[in-house]
């Protein structure tokens, strides 16, 4: 494992950073898409069951099959990273829609009534009251989606998209378990780092929780 890392630092670093952006970009796009959909599911309660059920069904689509059919849907090349970005964005949306809706539903009616009395309405109340209160729940969902993406990205190596999953295919083809182990270790490190950054971001966005905890 160490020897391969020493002899192929350029390849490993290139695959690592490719894995980073293939894992992170779909989560960011998924959150942007999930926020308005989750708001609809929260604001119009009758839409919650069909929206969340549909999101759950999307997540059951096999990832390898989705990676393969994306070029025919998007008109891209089979090895284009865009296929994986779009597919993983679908999975991220599927995970985050319910999380966003549940996070917004966690805002107490009294809090919303108080915000309305103070003049917060519509988009202003959503951005300054509802969304900040929902941050802890959404952060938990982001952690799951991000770690899940780190795992799913590696499957893209089977269709030739270079990232840390390439260490798995290389190790298997050469019958060298150390290379496979290197890929596992780097995926774990990446997942832990991203998870830690999300936790840190969630704490920075909710300073009032730290104040309450100190009491």
From TrEMBL:
Any single GO BP term: glycine betaine transport
The keyword Phosphoprotein is assigned to this record: no
Keyword field contains Membrane: yes
Membrane topology summary: Multi-pass membrane protein
Transmembrane segments: 20-42, 54-74, 80-101, 133-159, 179-205
Coiled-coil portions: none
Gene Ontology cellular-component terms listed: plasma membrane
Gene3D superfamilies membership: MetI-like
Cellular compartment(s): Cell membrane; Membrane
Family: Belongs to the binding-protein-dependent transport system permease family.
Protein name: ABC transporter permease
Gene source species: Kineosporia babensis
């Amino acid at each position: 494992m160490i020897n391969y890392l020493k002899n192929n630092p350029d390849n490993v670093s290139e695959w690592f950073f490719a894995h980073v952006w293939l894992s992170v970009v779909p989560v960011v796009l998924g959150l942007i898409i999930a926020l308005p959909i989750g708001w609809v599911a929260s604001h119009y309660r009758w839409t919650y069951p069909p929206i969340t059920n549909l999101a759950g069904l999307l997540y059951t689509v096999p990832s390898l099959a989705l990676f393969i059919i994306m070029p025919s849907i998007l008109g891209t090349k089979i090895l284009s990273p865009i296929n994986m970005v779009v597919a993983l964005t679908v999975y991220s949306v599927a995970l985050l829609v319910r999380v966003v809706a549940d996070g917004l539903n966690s805002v107490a009616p009294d809090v919303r009534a108080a915000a309305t009395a103070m003049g917060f309405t519509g988009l202003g109340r959503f951005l300054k009251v509802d969304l900040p209160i929902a941050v802890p729940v959404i952060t938990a969902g982001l952690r799951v989606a991000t770690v899940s993406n780190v795992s799913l990205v590696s499957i893209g190596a089977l269709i030739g998209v270079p990232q840390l999953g390439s260490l798995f295919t290389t190790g298997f083809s050469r019958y060298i378990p150390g290379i496979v182990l290197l890929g596992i270790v780097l995926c774990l490190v990446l997942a832990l780092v991203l998870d830690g950054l999300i936790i840190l971001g969630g704490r920075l966005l909710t300073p009032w929780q730290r104040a309450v905890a100190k009491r």
